[in-house]
Design brief:
The structure is a homodimer.
Chain A: H1 4-12, E1 27-36, H2 37-49, E2 56-59, E3 83-87, E4 90-95, E5 106-112, H3 115-123, H4 129-133, E6 139-145, E7 155-163, H5 165-176, E8 187-188, E9 215-220, H6 223-231, E10 237-240, E11 246-251, H7 266-270
Antiparallel strand pairs in A: 1-5, 1-10, 1-11, 2-5, 3-4, 3-10, 6-7, 7-9, 8-9
Pfam family, one (chains A, B): D-Glu_cyclase
Keywords (chains A, B): Lyase
Family (chains A, B): Belongs to the D-glutamate cyclase family.
Chain lengths: ~270, ~270
């Protein structure tokens, strides 16, 4: 199963229901949050006000299951391998297909995913500890509040990667160019300064060893928008199941440099 | 009249009603669009989908006249030197104070302004033709459609600066770091390629001479969101009058590098 078409077909048919890490390397993967239109303004504004944890890749028109910009061949009702359906902020059930749940006013938010993030570091020759160890990245719920927007509020969740000073500098340079997948770090060094008590006890994911001379480096984490959406208890919400991302139709390095990656391209899309 | 406090007071009292170009150098100035809440989702999504012409700096809560993030000491009802009030897409009147017009569901959008843009180029030693000539920058309405969102749709407006090849490269490098004030260029060279027939006949602003060896360079322009909002004919809308910007409380280079300028700063705002 190599081509994007084959992967898409396997996920759509329900044949592939496992996490998407490592699938379709070089293709942008995305977190999914689906909300009814009545919550969409507040959630959109929340993402705009908190771009580091919630970097928006695309927002669909109400009722449309097609992300026309980043995944025009995908159907959001079938093309995520595993969904979570929440009612009033509680997980109601998981599903492999949400066609039955879909509504005419469903608005889908695609948000940058850090799977693509680790690939950036590895490509630059920067070892990533949780990849070396074969575990999930350690994530911490900080006491730092995101900027609220309407009904949505909640704390910033961060991921942590231990790095040597030289790699810390290089990783900051590289990730700062990609605001669509969380951008540069939000903190470096003392975990207590951002309210983390014990690095060995992450709130999500797995702990990783920090070697002598290494500094913990913290990035805003894509778990934030789901955690915030859950805390805010909308009566209906669907997300991907953690790790089971939407694989878009968009190559990872679709616009070199990253800073303008949300810009529309005259030659590709709007040209004469 | 030098300090930000003095300028703010002069504008608020109605003493200063002229354009803000050159006022408070080093302070971010912003375009203003005020809409009732019922239009806010569509307009917010329009800005998110078209970040080059519509780089969002801040969106206020409904009814709040205070941009808490970028201009916490300002009042949007009094602190723009000259406003325009539109009804059904038509200019109804100008005003120096919109306190009487303000509503409980007014949502204000602050959008990056190119006054700050020219300062960036000049600071880097790049001559800017319309500044040299003492005229307004030439702006062109292209036939290139912005990505629509709900009721909002319309063409991309661009500004043009003629540059030598070396300055073109440097200006692209510099402006690309500042997506909040339109980012890098959208086109370089042949005006016909983006549907501009005659550079000597700009749709807004003034024509400027292009010297031998220079190449016209086009950037997305902050006139776009107002033009689009007008075309879409919301029944009520207030904007600043062209050139009469909101002067924020935010230093221009508030976050070095630009790419992360929308990021919240842990140390400044969310720190322990």
């Amino acid at each position: 199963m190599n081509s994007l078409e084959e992967i898409r077909r396997a996920i759509r048919s329900g044949e592939w229901t496992r996490p998407t890490a490592g699938l379709a390397p070089g293709i942008l993967q995305a977190n999914l949050v689906v909300l009814p239109k009545r919550y969409a303004y507040d959630f959109l504004l929340f993402c705009v006000r908190n771009p580091k944890p919630c970097p928006l890749i695309e927002v669909t028109d109400p009722g449309s299951p097609v992300p026309v910009k980043t995944a025009p061949k995908a159907d959001l009702r079938t093309d995520v391998p595993r969904y979570r359906i929440y009612r009033n902020g509680e997980l109601a059930r998981e599903a492999f297909d949400i066609t039955e749940e879909w509504t005419e006013d469903a608005v889908s938010f695609l948000i940058g995913c850090s799977f693509t993030f680790d690939a950036l570091l590895l490509n630059a020759g920067i070892p990533v500890r949780h990849v070396e160890e074969g575990v999930n990245v350690p994530m911490y719920r900080t006491p730092i509040p995101c900027e609220p927007a309407g009904m949505f509020r909640g704390p910033l969740v961060v991921s942590m990667r231990p790095l040597s000073p030289a790699n810390l500098i290089r990783a900051t340079e590289i990730t700062s160019r990609y605001p669509e997948i969380h951008g540069g770090p939000v903190h470096v060094g003392d975990p207590a300064a951002i309210g983390i008590r014990d690095l060995d006890q992450p709130d999500y994911g797995d702990p990783v060893p920090i070697r002598e001379g290494e500094i913990p480096v913290f990035w805003a984490c894509g778990v934030t928008p789901q955690a915030v959406a859950m805390e805010s208890r909308p009566d209906w919400m669907i997300t991907h199941a953690p790790g089971h991302m939407l694989i878009t139709d968009t190559p990872l390095f679709w616009e070199q440099g990253g800073a303008d990656s949300h810009a529309f391209s005259l030659t590709d899309k709007n040209g004469p």
